[in-house]
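OP here, attaching both records as promised.
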Amino acid sequence: MVKVKTILARYHRAVENEFDTRQAFDRLTSAAPTHCIEEWAASIETAEANRCTDPASMDIMHSIIKTGQSLKDIQAAMLKADRVDSLTENHDGYLDWLLEGMKIEDEQ
């Protein structure tokens, strides 16, 4: 019975977070270059096709954060790098999306 309660709690949390997640996804899609979106979609399709025989293929869905760094350290480094990049390149809003995704991931 405990597993059922846990699954139901996770389902309810997912439903509650769906709107925020959808907004973040839509912002990423609108900010990312077309070739990145195509590459991500192809990676996901391949992982899903292989998950029955190779469950580890789904690991691409997990965020990868270097150990020993806090979320705040990572965000600070990203902000610093973004400031440097925005002086020399076209700023396309990637950082905003990444930080929003990290916030959602942290809340979950």
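Record two, same layout:
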Amino acid sequence: MSSKNNDLNVSDNVRQIQPSATIAVSTLAKKLKAEGRDIINLGAGEPDFDTPAFIRQAAIDAIQGGATRYTPAAGLPELRQAVARELARGPNPELDPDGVVVSAGAKHSLFNAIFSVVGPGEEMLVPAPYWTTYPELVRLARAEPRVVVGPEDRDYRVDVDTLDAAYDDTVRAILLNTPSNPSGAVYTLEEVEAIVAWAADRHVWVITDEIYNRLWHDGPEGGRAPGLLDLDPALLDRAVVVDGVSKTYAMTGWRIGYSWSRTDLAKKMGALQSHMTSNAATPSQHAAMAALGANEEQRSEVLAMAREFRARRDLVVELLGEVMPDVGCVRPAGAFYLFFRVDAFFTEAVPDSVALCQNLIEEAGVALVPGSAFGDDRYVRMSFAASRDDLENGLRRAAAHLTR
């Protein structure tokens, strides 16, 4: 048989899709560790805490009670009600549960939203640095991501001037991530409002990924970073909010995300999901209900995790200033990542962030994620979802290797 006949002839739908860089780094770190290498994995994008016991028990009780069958594609009605209560705030004290679609993780919710509002011949504004999956989701919708970059002195948060310079009549949507993965930057309420008003004037959809909103280090304990639902309902006609339980409740593997939007769009996204995955796992939905319905004692365990992330943020920012004082970073106001600049360490042998991260994991035993995966090759991303010992040892190892 000729080699030509053995070629993989895939469709244009997946031909250009690249694997997730963050998952690739984590996979490599685990593989090297299993081989006996001393590896400090600071690439992981998930909390290092166990899912709280009361949430685990709720899933066990649900399974033993027979909650192992299909649910409506958009989720259990009682979970959709719990999500609506969780998301409600300020000028939106009551949200229609029919606007909620529960999915197999926030990534799935983002796919539903993007696939439903953009299509062939259209473009979506994607601020950089961006989560590595965003451009791929836009391309899966047969649309094109148009990358926009805000000023460095604003931690790369985009503003109306940035958007105006990138806008034309092919732009149908914009995707905001606040708090940001990878930078930890948080948009102020005034910035969010200005962007949404700008989009409303141009009939552009706004999708916000707010999965880290409860990990807001510069806000009040237990508070949420500013988001779409802090705005006047009149501005939300072309808005989709994406959130989930993965980060706040250390439930990454449970795969529960959700979106809120106007009900007619939610019905379209629910119909789309019904032909793809149907419902998210039923026991996981019961676990999510327990998380969102936590009593005061149970919530204290959740707040303790957020408090520890805040303390780690302070630790890594201070330590970076000590071990690499000339290296710039975005001081993370939220999430659990430190995005710091490494282009000063590029050489002929190590010309970019991919090569630098490969070199670090092989020679220093420290796993970081290259900034090129997030649209800025000058940086690397370090997760501080790790023990304080690993954070300190990992940063010191990386600094010793880079500055030798």
